[in-house]
Structures are given as structure tokens and as C-alpha cells.
Amino acid sequence: MVTVDELFATDSLLSEEEREIRDTVAAFAARRLRPHIADWFEAGTFPAREIAPELGKLGLLGMHLEGYGCAGMSATAYGLACQELEAVDSGVRSMVSVQGSLAMTAIHMFGSEEQKQHWLPGMAAGETIGCFGLTEPDFGSNPGGMRTRAERDGDDWVLNGSKMWITNGSVADVAVIWARTDERIRGFLVPTDTPGFTAREMRRKLSLRASITAELDLDDVRLPADALLPASKGLGSPLACLSEARFGIIFGALGAARDCLDATIEYTRTREVFDKPLASYQLTQAKLADMALELGKGQLLALHIGRLKDRHEVGAEQISAGKLNSTREAIKIARECRTLLGANGITLDYPVLRHANNLESVLTYEGTAEVHQMVLGKALTGADAFR
């Protein structure tokens, strides 16, 4: 027997340091997260305040950023960490992505030196939690239509509006809020204890249940002038942060798929049907072979994109290609695995349907599959089909 990693010899493409980072995250996930994840999912909760400092000690929060207490690891190493976290649950990887690739990256890319010094060390340590407020109730795929506004009032800014589907929103200490001004879209750092700022946790979810999701309301939230992210200039600023988060998804979604496939292979080897193991049937092996092939191809593409990113040669179209491929193939694998587990596949005794439910969200957040198809279509044809 071989694993998918062995089948495609992907370890041979990693440095010793990258393998060590991957294995360290996998060991932490197995010890600290995996024993509890089914219960967290069933209860619709995640102990972010408790887990974040532990992730910080491992250097996983903003791990691809330089300075300010951040680990400064390679993009590929960050991707491998995301893969191991999402092999446990998409909600765990989402928490890390929002903290590091969205909130911390926004401050690191567009903040003043004073803002970086004030916020980033605590966020890297997991002592301070951040969220990223871009999506609104009526504007998901079209963030440029946002209605949240920031108006000047003397030296202050006053923000009004709402944001929706905000991971970490109700447990965050600081929210990166994107708002329309008279000139352009700008980013603001909003301490969550600011009067007029409220966060309501969103319940009744059937996906990403082991993740904190909130709706944010801003009602005459008054901020000092230095709350503005000074280098944020237009919609391109939050979109640059989204590209960082999408990169983590390229690896992360494949971690969920791998966990489904591993659990299913083990199940089929021990489950007897008509007096022999389910794994010994040709149709079962055909399904497993096809899933292993797509998983292996996805991992090779992810590693290639990681290398391009480490050389600062990756484009937005390549990130879109990776995100589209990983999420689309991962959810197919999860659904196919469920068929092999039969009725057992719908229970939390196995991770498969939990991953499939989570991947329904991963498929559509940070750009739906259709959005990424149009990104690729524009790159291939030169024609913009977004409007």
C-alpha cells in the first residue's frame, strides 16, 4: 500500500524545512484539534480565544509575513500548514487565513509603521484576534458595490454600514473595515470596543460550523484620523488581501480532500460486503484511483503555484486557477467518498460529510467558482465578462 503522497512522490519536491513545518503542524492538529473537531462542529462553536495563542506559539499566524513577531516563512511552507489544518477542518484553516492572510496582511501591506507596531505582534502571538470586513449582505462577488461609508468629520472619520459572513467577527479585538469615501474605497482599523460597533454571531449554519461567523453593524462609529490604513487606495487593496487568502485555500482544500480519501480507503479495507472487503471490488478501486489521481494532480499544481509565489512570479490568474481546481476537485472527492461509506458516511463518526459541507462554503468564498472561471476566461480571451 502507498499513500497519495508516495504515489506522486511529492515529498521529494519539498525541502527538509518544509517537511518539518508540515509534520509539526500535522502533529499539533492530531493532538490538539482532531479529537475535538466533531464535537465543535456538532455544537456549532470553535474555541478561538483558546486555540489562537497555541497557533501563535507555532508561528502559524501571519507566518508568511516579515517582522513584527511574524515567522517570515515561505509561501509554500504556509500552504503546507494550511493543508494540514484543513485536513482537520476548513473552519480551523479559515480562522488562520482570516487572521494572517486578511487582517494581518492588510495591516502589513497598507498600515503605517505605528499601526504595524501596535497590532501585528499581538496578532502574531494569537493574543489579539482580527477580522476582515469586506463582504456585505448585498455585495459578495461584487465588493465594489459596497454601501458602507466613511465620512470626514473634522479630523475624525465616521463609519456607517454593515458587513456579513465575517469569520472571527464576534471574537475579534480589531476589525479591518473597508468603506467607501468621497474619493475611493479605503481601509480602517476599528477596535471592536468602539461605540457603535456591534457583532452578532450567525447561527443555523450547515457548513463551517466549527468556525465563528458574524454580522457586523457600524452605527456612527467614530474613529480618529490615524485609524485609516494610509496606503489603502481603492478596491485593489482588499482584493490584494483576498489573493493571499485564496493562495492558502489552494493547499487547504486539498487537505480536506486527502483526509476524506484516507478515511475512505481505511474504511473500504475493513468493511465487508458480500463476504469480502469493499476495497476488493473493481468499482471501488476505480473510484479510489480516480480520486487519488485528482488529488495528486491538485497537490502538484499547488506546489508549482507555491514555488511561483516564492519567486514573486505568480499572477492573479494562476491563483484563480489553483483555487478553482482545488475547491472543485476537493468537493467532488468528498462527495464520492461519502458514497463508498454508505450510511456511515452521513455521521460525525467519519469526517467525510463534515468536509463536504465545509467545502460547499470554501467553493464559493474568496471568489465563487464562476468568478474564477471568468478571471481565467478574461486572461485567455482578453474579453471582460463580469458585466
Automatic annotation (TrEMBL):
SUPFAM superfamilies: Acyl-CoA dehydrogenase C-terminal domain-like (SSF47203), Acyl-CoA dehydrogenase NM domain-like (SSF56645). Keywords: FAD, Flavoprotein, Oxidoreductase, Transit peptide. Residues 15-127 form the Acyl-CoA dehydrogenase/oxidase N-terminal domain. Its cofactor is FAD. It holds the Pfam family Acyl-CoA_dh_M. Residues 233-380 form the Acyl-CoA dehydrogenase/oxidase C-terminal domain. This is Acyl-CoA dehydrogenase family protein. Belongs to the acyl-CoA dehydrogenase family. It comes from the Bacteria. Residues 131-221 form the Acyl-CoA oxidase/dehydrogenase middle domain. It comes from Nocardia aurea.
